[in-house]
Amino acid sequence: xxxxxxxxxxxxxMLVLGAxxxxxxxxxxxxxxxxxxxxxxxxxxxxxxxxxxMEWYNLLPYIASxxxxxxxxxxxxAMLFLVASGFVTYPALKNIxxxxxxxxxxxxxxxxxxxxxxxxxNLIVLFISFEAVSIGTYIIAGFHKxxxxxxxxxxxxxxxxxxTAFIIFGLSYFYLSTGTxxxxxxxxxxxxxxxxxxxxxxxxGFGFKLAIFPMHQWAIDxxxxxxxxxxxxxxxxxxxVAFLIMLKVFIAGFAGLDTYVYVFFxxxxxxxxxxxxxxxxxxxxxxxxxxxxxxxxxxxxILVFAVAGFAPGGQATNYAIAAGMLYSLVYIFMxxxxxxxxxxxxxxxxxxxxxxxxxxxxxxxALAFSVILLSLAGIPLTGGFLAKFFLFLSLVxxxxxxxxxxxxxxxxxxxxxxxxxxxxxxxxxxxxxxSFDLSVxxxxxxxxxxxxxxVLFFIFGLFFxxxxxxxxxxxxx
Length: 477
Description:
Elements: H1 12-27, H2 34-58, E1 63-65, E2 68-70, H3 72-87, H4 100-119, H5 123-141, H6 147-178, H7 192-210, H8 217-225, H9 228-253, H10 258-281, H11 286-301, H12 303-310, H13 315-341, H14 358-361, H15 363-377, H16 383-397, H17 401-427, H18 440-458, H19 461-466
Antiparallel strand pairs: 1-2
Helix pairs in contact: 1-2, 1-4, 2-3, 2-4, 3-4, 3-9, 3-13, 4-5, 5-6, 5-9, 6-7, 6-8, 7-9, 8-9, 8-11, 9-13, 10-11, 10-12, 10-17, 11-13, 11-17, 12-13, 13-15, 13-16, 13-18, 15-17, 15-18, 16-17, 16-18
């Protein structure tokens, strides 16, 4: 297959990010201020974002070359990844000082891997791009270099290595059964037992990456131990690229085993949502509470696969995929903003008591954080409510009433621990030694997140705008 020079334009965003990464590394020789590296990285993210946006609107047919498909589905997730990376660029300045050029270069290289994953429909390319993201995040996770951070990064690394082994094993059985690594077109399943083995191992491998119960414990320790901006990125960008690849692999790749996909993911979704929400109820450590909340959110996200397996190819499946796409957007600001709020607390391990009295010290910040928590709980007038509404609606449309009831009950449970945090902010007096870092740089990301999650609630049409692109999960237009 020859390469069409006209297709090069679709690779410009990746080239921009990669070039910016090398430029930052070269600039590191001059030992410039960290904010300069952050600004170069942010400029690259913005340029890449608008390049992708221009390509999306100018694109008529989709272009497939060597398993790369440039369609609306991929463009949407590519822009999400750029938003997730750009969102933590400046907040990371708080604790990333020594050799910050390496941090920002690595963030750019990780985002290149994410963009490749957004457009690829070849399992080998998806695997390599995903591992590039994983290796980069291993480095980012340990960048703060405290004993606690390095311990968390080590747990993350070893767990990721085990997950990689499961994924490789699953991909091997997938190839033995189908004779192809491509997810394009109708995949012929020649050996159901081999495909079931592939399905099981891939669910375990990606289950670790997405932090699905019972493959979730690494996420609790890692999110708790890493620097707040890193926790924000790992719980959003890194997790969403796993979700994207899972959409392609389990919906397009296992289209012939829909019943098994439904059973596996229905069980995992119920177990993940229920366990994480119940575990969060007893948490006093704020970051561990948010980590369990992140696991619960993963449980909501994988409801998409249950619907796709139970009602394959129907309107309910398209609704579920579109709802997952909308959920992914809201999730960046809900979860990312929640972790970045921890920058306000001058403690490595913030507890409930440490956030007491925040409403008196900074009413606006307490209100913004409350809005983010309400969005995570799925309360009306927030984007989290809208995303959950359409996701649960897809369950009802697909005939999965019982699963919709379980999901709604879990959302109700989550309200208790989110309101508990708010209670400490508003109705508990802060101790004398409790202090907050209320600098503008710490407040802006929280305010911005709160505004976005509220604005997204009023953009009802966004879901229906995304609906036509849901079918792109199969590599179509």
